Amino acid sequence: MHAILQMIIKMSAVALAVLFTTTISARARTQSEASLCSQQVLPVELQNRLKADFPSSKVQEPSNLSQRARDRWRDEKPLACPGIASGQFESKNQISYAILLVPTKNPDSAYRLLVLTPGVGSSANSLRVIDQWDKGGASNNFIHTIQISKVFSKEWIRKLQLKTNEGILSVDSGENEYGVEVYFLANGQYRHEPIDY
What we know:
The chain is an alpha+beta fold. It is 32% helix and 31% strand. It is globular, with a radius of gyration of 21 Å.
C-alpha cells in the first residue's frame, strides 16, 4: 500500500511539473509574440505617422488572430508579427513597411493594409493604402514578406514589369473565405493576385 501511495505522489508531482512548464511556456510565447508587433520596430518617422493618421487603430497582433489564423501564422518561417512585413516592396534600394492595421476597439471589425516608405519625397508619397475591408473577419488575416520569384515565373515578372524582388503575402485564414494573395508594385501602382500557397 505504501508503494502505491508513493507512486501516486510521484505521478502527481510529474503531472504538476508538466502543467507548470506548459503554462509558463505558453505565457512566455504569448509575451514573445506580442513583442514582435511593437511599433518600436518601425522607424520613428513611421511610428509618428501611424499615431497621427490612424489614432484609433493598432497593428494586427497574434492575440487578435482567430485560432485558425494563429495556427496558420505560426507555420510561417521566419515567425514575424502578423501585422508588419518589411521588404523592398517599392525599390531595390529602399526598405518599405507593410502594416496591417485593425481598430483598437473591436479589432475583428475591419482592416487597412498600408505600405509606408520612410524618407520618400512628400509624406503623401510615403504612405499608400493598398487594401481595406470594413465588413468584419479581420481576425482571420495576417501578412508576411515573400520573394516575388516564389510566386511568379521569370516570364510573368517580365510581363508585369516588376522592378522589385519582394511582395506582400496576405493570408485570409477564415473557414469560409480562405485565400492567399500577393501584393506587388507594378508600373507605380500596387496590384494583387490570388496565389496557391
